[in-house]
Amino acid sequence: MSATIAKTLDMKGFACPLPIAKTAQAIRELDVGDLLEVLATDPGSVPDFAAWSGSTGHALIESTETDGVFRFLIRKG
Amino acid sequence: MAATAEAVREAKDEAVHAPHRKLVIMAWSGDLDRIWPTLILGTTGAAMGMETTVFFTFWGLFPLVKDDVRITGDNWMQKLLSTMDRPGLEHVKLGKMNFAGAGPAMMRKLARDHHVASPHELLELAKDLGVKLVPCQMTMDLLGLHEDDLIDGLEAPAGATTALLEAQDATTLFI
Description:
The complex is a heterodimer.
Chain A: E1 5-11, H1 18-28, E2 35-40, H2 45-56, E3 59-66, E4 69-75
Parallel strand pairs in A: 1-2
Antiparallel strand pairs in A: 2-4, 3-4
Chain B: H1 2-16, E1 22-27, H2 32-47, E2 51-56, H3 76-84, H4 102-113, H5 119-128, E3 132-135, H6 137-143, H7 160-167, E4 171-174
Parallel strand pairs in B: 1-2, 1-4, 2-3
Helix pairs in contact in B: 2-5
């Protein structure tokens, strides 16, 4: 299990549904097990990424916030 | 962050047990206030891995006409209708407070300022994420619309039976 981030998607400043929709696009390019990091500032993205992860089978490993920036770490399932 | 982690786990458990993996949206209106949420929900459904289909019927079909097609229809009445209600996603109006186009122009300006995706951007995202966009054959006949009047990337036109069959085991929204 590698901890290297395969791709970072910067969705800071973007509103729903772009962070999720662009994440769905970005994760297609990765291999199973790869890590995708998403940065966002939309507070709605916190519950949305949790729901999206549960719905798609991609694991939400981390959901943290630093100075108003939400960071989601997703392992492709 | 413990509370957040807990909320994340609960939301995940709930989502895994979601009964429907299909989303069907009946888009019957050509108003911006309806077509915008239709595209947001359709895009999100596909992003969530839901098999997503949007049926465009009646006035809902106008936003699928190419923006540069000015007049549609085969007879004078169909043509007159298209001049009164200009087709194309670029030209959709608000159902309320349209103010001769000032309302939608302000909404689009606000959306740009707040980085909310435009209807055009969402439509492209929807197509890329595999949302099936189905025009209603009956409406096409009624309004004299032909496939070359409509934007690219649509499914073959279909009827109400196809829409209802698709909706039988899906979460269905009528927007």
